[in-house]
Structure formats: C-alpha cells, structure tokens
Amino acid sequence: MNYVEPEISKSSFHCPMCGTYAHMRWFHFGRNHAVRPYTEAECSHCEQSSLWRIQEYNEENGRLNPSKGVMLFPDTGSAPNPEPDMPSDVREDYLEAASIFYKSPRGAAALLRLGLQKLCKHLGKSGENINSDIRDLSKENILPPMVIKVADTVRITGNNAVHPGEMSDKDFDYVASKLFDLLNFIVRKAITEPKELDDLYNRTPEKPREAAEKTDAKNKHKGT
Rounded to two decimals, what is the model's pTM? Predict the structure, then answer.
C-alpha cells in the first residue's frame, strides 16, 4: 500500500519505529490535572511509541484535541523508513535529511541529492552527474525510463536549494519531500528486485536451470 505519513491524532499511519502500517493509540501527558503540550502514539504492531509536541488544538464536544504538532522522537519527520537494502553511507545521509526536513527542507534536499550521488556510485556510475548517471541506468534497463524525468526534478531541486527562485517555497518543500521516495524507489528497482530475482532463479532445480542457460546461449549466438 501507499505510504501514510505520521500525523498527530491520526488513528493509523506507517509507524516511524517499525515501518508497519498500524493503528495508533494516543496518550496525553498531564500534571495536577493540567494538560501538558505533549502526546505519544503507541503502535499496535510493535508497541513502541513516538513522542509529539502539540502546537494547536481543536475543541470538540468540550474537549481539546491536538490538531497540529511535530514529532520529536524518533526525529525522522514524515519520511518513510529507508529500504533495508539501502547502502549504509546512503542511509546515513537519508536519515540525517529526515531528521532536519521540518526545520530545513533545503538542507534535507542537499543531503538527499548527495545520497543519490553515492547511490549512483554503488550502481557502477561516476556519481558526478545525477542526470547522466540515471540516463545510463535507464539505457541499461536497470531503471525505468520515467526516472529520467524525475532526475530533472532532482537537478532543479538541488539548484533551488542553493539558488532559490526556480520554484515556489511551497512547491520546493513538496518536491524535496518526494526525494525520500525517489531514493527508496531506486534502491528497490536497482538492488532489491534484482537480488530477489537472483534468489528465485537459484532456487530452481539445477538441471532445468542449466538447460535454460544453454538455450539462452544458443539464441544469443543466433542473434549475433
């Protein structure tokens, strides 16, 4: 299913602790019968909690309900968890970007762009030019052609992080948030899915596998 980002008072979302879409139980803090501006969401799946600071309330039926807030822990903001197969140095940039996104979308975008450069290197490219690297990966059928258009967005977002003015702040914040999804998508397509296919292939019986390899080799020879 599509990623549902954490939001204060929302009954269900993807847990920032375990990454599972689950129901959340909300608990409010208080002292001497006074409401404190903090609340926690306990995940029904992993039973771990995220901590939130309440910024605004809505009054319903004589009760104050948190309507706006910021997640304090974990400090990953609304970003989805990084893919398990994401290289460690890319993951480091990803998590740092997630931790500062609310405070500095431009700083987060710059870190994600750096992470994407490192990811291109892991995929055998130079990492010096994201656009050309992704175009090469598309030509090699490692990534789908549509990612080329996204690469242009990365370039514009990266430039805007240093030289504001190419897009509105609202558009910039939205596009920058989608760079998290882009890194995860590339990891899934270029690393995870090929690994899963190799695993499936290696699980087939040896003799049929060898026969298929011989047939493929003959067809390739005929084609040349």
Answer: 0.71
